[in-house]
Amino acid sequence: MLKDKMIAGINEQINREMYSAYLYMSMSAYSNMIGLKGFANWFMVQYHEEMLHAMKLYEYMQRQGGDVLLKAIEAPPAEFESPMDMFVKTLAHEQFITRSINDLMDLAIAEKDHASQIFLQWYVNEQVEEEENDNDIILQLKIIKDDAHALLMLDRELAGRMTTVPTDFSKGIESAMNAVVPAP
Ligand SMILES: [Fe+2]
Ligand SMILES: [Fe+2]
User: Fold this and answer.
1) N or C: which end of the chain has fewer CB within 10 A?
2) What is this structure's pTM?
């Protein structure tokens, strides 16, 4: 059983992960529009990751008997100044998500909700990875500066990112996880 405050917090987090998916979908569209198909691929893979983040919370809530309450998803920005602008905004957004996850964890600790603490641990780890990935790309973009050739090389590298998370949740997260073929 989840306490009311926990239910409210998880519903808010579902909305934030859905916004994350929406934001990266918008960045993918913008990348395509400016001819950077590798960046577009990277952001679309990230979109799928965000859908998993939302769906894990959605399923956990239902398993714990809490009511899922879906809220309106805010419109993300549609235009960006540059690839650097997209990744600086991505990192800032993920830092906001990290704070939000930490707040949820603090709540779970205050409420002595052990199951939620263990569940949220996955998100604590995931946020370390997310911020690291964004930082790595920002560092590369700093080296690239205005070098178009180098930017196209990075675009080619980002084109290789594969979706390794499940994308079909109709049978639940666990069965979706089992159905995912590990990357070669
Ligand atoms: Fe996320
Ligand atoms: Fe991730």
Assistant:
1) C
2) 0.95
